[in-house]
Write a structure and sequence with these properties.
The protein has 13 helices and 9 strands. It has helices at residues 16-25, 37-41, 54-58, 71-80, 83-86, 100-113, 127-132, 146-156, 168-196, 201-208, 216-226, 236-253, 258-275, and strands at residues 6-10, 29-33, 49-50, 63-66, 92-95, 117-120, 123-124, 135-140, 157-163. The longest helix has 29 residues, at 168-196. It binds NADP nicotinamide-adenine-dinucleotide phosphate (NAP). NADP nicotinamide-adenine-dinucleotide phosphate is lined by residues 11-16, 34-36, 39, 67-69, 73, 76-77, 97-98, 123, 126-127, 233-235, 238, 242.
């Protein structure tokens, strides 16, 4: 019998926890670490080994997957907490957090200094696709790693898009998120406008239904907003972090992003008003007149 590869999942928040569970279900030996240990401990009943430190999780693992909030958290976990140094020479670091362009290049350099194989692998999809194992993985790195990494990506996603150059996956992720954030802000404003003009906002959703401008995201986020159900799938805090990465990338590329600038302001107000831990659909709060 062949031994199943071992994978260390560092970061078991909204995305990391279901990702770890799906890897376990697919037959990998999974070790999980999280800064607030209770979140990792919740995975023990699934047969996942909980590690006390990032280095304990990474030692002897075939893959180390980072699913942390941002580039700083990834560097602290991998470098300051010793996970990178603990990795074996044949191990592969799968960097799945959304960290933006500057940070991904820096993290890839840190891996290179230690001679560790690195894949820039942000994911598209939110809490439910992570639970269902239907994420889209954007993977960029040495194509020779593809065959080894593919079973990992197939355990967590339904689609993998491979790109050649480290950094390209993180760039594409920012492009996709710029679209998602623009649509999310538009949904918040259209619902608030419908209410402000005295309509039941359901009338707006029903009117658009089946037309060329309809999409499933509108109905999911629109219904949640109407019910004021802002349970986090993609928290506003994370969206605010991402929009700053998008604007930094646009500025470096000489692209004017007026819409993204407006969405950034809306997200900033959402966070300042105390809704950062709620879903990004809580942008509605920074849109509707206080009642
Ligand atoms: P989350 O639930 O807020 O989890 C964030 C994770 O980062 C937690 O494990 C947190 O630890 C950890 N963390 C934060 N600061 C840290 C630090 N300084 N040192 C070590 N660990 C730290 O976020 P998430 O939604 O799972 O997102 C994880 C990554 O996936 C982010 O890059 C996000 O942009 C990306 N992503 C999210 C979605 C989504 O829809 N949610 C979709 C695609 C991609 P604690 O538990 O101790 O706070």
């Amino acid at each position: 019998m062949t031994t199943q590869p071992t994978i260390a999942v560092l970061g078991t928040g909204i995305m990391g926890a279901p990702v770890a569970r799906n890897l376990q279900r697919a037959g990998f030996t999974v070790r999980a670490w999280n800064r607030s240990l209770d979140k990792a401990q919740a995975l023990a009943s699934d047969g996942i080994t909980v590690a006390d430190t990032p280095a304990d999780a990474a030692k002897g693992a075939d893959f180390v997957m980072t699913v942390l909030i941002d580039g700083e958290a990834v560097e602290q976990t991998m470098v300051d907490s010793g996970a990178l140094q603990a990795m074996g020479e044949d191990a592969i670091w799968l960097q799945c957090s959304t960290v933006g362009i500057e940070a991904i290049e820096h993290l890839a350099d840190l891996a290179k200094q230690q001679d560790i194989a690195f894949v820039d692998a942000p994911v598209i999809g939110t809490k439910k696709p992570a639970e269902d194992g239907t994420l889209t993985v954007l993977a960029a790195g040495n194509r020779e790693l593809e065959a080894q990494c593919q079973p990992v990506f197939e355990a967590i996603g339904s689609r993998t898009i491979w790109l050649d150059n480290i950094g390209d996956a993180s760039k594409l992720k920012l492009v996709v998120n710029s679209w998602v954030l623009a649509v999310s802000a538009a949904i918040a404003e259209a619902i608030a406008l419908a209410e402000g003009l005295g309509f039941d906002p359901q009338l707006f959703l029903d009117t658009v239904k089946g037309s060329a401008t309809d999409n499933p995201f509108l109905h999911a986020k629109g219904q949640a907003t109407i019910k004021r159900d802002f349970a986090p799938a993609f928290p506003a805090d994370g969206a605010y972090k991402d929009i700053k990465l998008i604007l930094a990338a646009a500025q470096a590329a000489g692209i004017e992003q007026d819409l993204m600038t407006a969405v950034q302001q809306k997200l900033e107000r959402t966070v300042q008003q105390g809704h950062g831990k709620e879903d990004m659909a809580a942008m509605y709060h920074a849109t509707a007149k206080p009642q």
